[in-house]
Design goal:
The protein has 176 residues and is mainly β. The protein contains five helices and 16 strands. The protein has helices at 4-7, 86-89, 126-132, 154-158, 167-170; strands at 2-3, 11-14, 17-28, 33-39, 49-52, 56-59, 64-66, 73-74, 84-85, 93-95, 101-110, 117-123, 135-138, 144-145, 149-151, 161-162. Strands 1, 10, 11, 12, 13, 14, 15 and 16 form an eight-stranded mixed sheet that branches. A hairpin with a 4-residue loop joins strand 3 (17-28) and strand 4 (33-39). The N and C termini lie far apart (36 Å). The mean pLDDT is 82.
Length: 176
């Protein structure tokens, strides 16, 4: 699995030639999959360049190798019609079926083999993140991505677990 926070800034290569780095990720909200990657803009370009997820030959934590350069295209103006950008997903709020606020998306993980979003990392507040750590939620079939928020059902809410990385764990405060 790869995390958004690790993928942003990753250099992209075609036959050992560096063509840029990943600036953003394009997501299909209906299928909950990564469909493409947006590269940084060069000085002379008006629009961003992008490549589809299917063009990846190998994806590592420190580099992405593409099959060939012919599929790198300019980002169309209407790309937001059916896609969601990673930066938009990171600002989404999570709510259960009753409308109760659960937190916001701080990061997400996707499969390197098919681009499926596997889990969301949830943050409630800075203080709670520092003390208890963030939480992890698997992206199940009944998780709905909308323009304003992400809605989950009771079963998904029960699957939310802690990452065990807060100061409480570090100071071993449970044993006192």
């Amino acid at each position: 699995m790869h995390y958004w926070s690790e993928a942003v800034g990753t250099p992209v290569f075609i036959n050992r030639n560096r063509i840029g780095h990943i600036e953003n990720i394009m997501i299909d909200p209906a299928k909950k999959t990564v469909v493409g990657f947006i590269l940084e803009r060069k000085n002379t370009e008006i629009r961003h360049r992008f490549f589809r997820f299917t063009q990846i030959e190998e994806m590592k934590r420190d580099s992405v190798q593409l099959i060939n350069g012919s599929e790198i295209k300019m980002l169309p103006r209407d790309y937001r019609k059916n896609t969601l950008l990673a930066e938009d997903l990171l600002s989404k709020l999570l709510a259960d079926e009753k409308g109760k606020w659960i937190g916001r998306v701080a990061d997400f993980a996707f499969s390197a083999s098919n681009g499926t979003i596997r889990e969301l990392i949830i943050s409630k507040s800075l203080v709670e993140d520092l003390w208890l750590g963030r939480k992890r939620m698997p992206v199940l079939s009944n998780v709905e991505f909308s323009q304003q928020l992400i809605r989950i059902d009771r079963d998904t809410k029960e699957e939310i677990t802690g990452l065990q990385k807060g100061l409480k764990k570090w100071f071993n405060m449970d044993s006192i």
